[in-house]
User: Fold this.
Amino acid sequence: MNAPFGAFEHPVVVAGGQVLTERGLERLDLVVHQGIVVELGASVDHPAGATVLDASGALVGPSFVDLHTHLREPGREQAETIETGTRAAALGGYGAVVAMPNTEPTMDTAAVVHMVLERGRNAPCEVAAAGAITVGRLGAQLAPMAELAALGVELFTDDGTGVQDGGVARRAMDYCRGLGVTYAEHCEDLAIAHGGCVHEGAWSALLGLPGQPAAAEEAMVARDLLLAATTGARLHLLHLSTAGSVELVRQAKARGVAVTAEVAPHHLSLTDASLKGYDPCFKVNPPLRPAEHLEALLDGLNDGTIDAVATDHAPHTPELKDLPFDQAPPGMLGLETAASITYEQLVAGRGATIERFFEVMATQPAKIARLDGTGARPFGHSVHGQRVAVGTTANLVVFDPEVRWTLEVDQLASKATNSPFSGARLVGKVRHCLLRGEPVVTDARSTR
Ligand code: NCD
Assistant:
């Protein structure tokens, strides 16, 4: 049993929780030493000098993995940095995040990707990187994908914009197939979206805001599913938001297309009725939709059509977010609220199992990002998303599903405050989080 790179030396006991093991949920204590779970039992001996973390009344499982985090560094450090974003991630129960490449400069060269990975090395949450598909995310010339793949990049995306030219998408998928990496799409056909900044429907008409129809997303979902079947590339669909997208993915999976999909917590919990106050905090891309889409997304997440929850954590400075609705940039914070919202909507609201909760928050995203031990790990990323067992890396979250709390945005670790849940009463919160055995969050506070 080798200690993982950067393992915490000291022993830690996690006591009194319901632990997710291969057998399901069990009331167990566990001992962690040198980054590894070394003992698991109904009662365990506490090693001398061990830190003891109380997990009574809480769930203990693999820490979460976020497939979709905008850390904003380099280039927009006024909104977020790798330091503040990873602290927010750890507080949200995340052991690893995939940093999105729409930085300034874009993560389309080995130098920029290297810098992000290097700066994330000692963070309280591991940082993996997604690389851009095209140079500058401009949709024309392919980025040097092989060079980025050599740095361990497993996901490629022009997130923020979909690849508009189907020929470019096809070539990029051919490269992804050859390199064994995943093509991840922000599905939005800009010609169909036609500048719409909210969902096209009753609310856009009432508020007088330009809308974009669900078809703007679904047209690109359909195109990419066909291209994935043509090229044999692995396709991951980012932040799906419509009932039609869920149905297209369901049909494609039934045909055997190698596709995975994610949904963001805000699309599982908010509808376009939230736009009635013109608050730009509710402006996001893809836009909030009517309730029937939300229902279809929850069904899809519950039945496995959608594989993972991903935050699309998109911090913006107040200077930008306070602009009039149509001028403000789209995007919402997500890291520190995702687990609460997902638990409430999926488990409490939909009757999904706690196993499914950990699957969509940890196991599946770890697999998609290949942080499950199968991917290249030149930057020492450890193994994520495993159920708890003796010998596994201690990337663990202790989540209390009962605690009620009010979100105060000025208390977030994130630099930005653009959460749509500001002032909301939430249920369920991360109590502790361990990264390679180190308690990086204890009693809902960051130790870093
Ligand atoms: C994202 C951002 O701010 O980087 N915003 C968002 O609303 N999701 C980019 C994007 O996907 O538009």
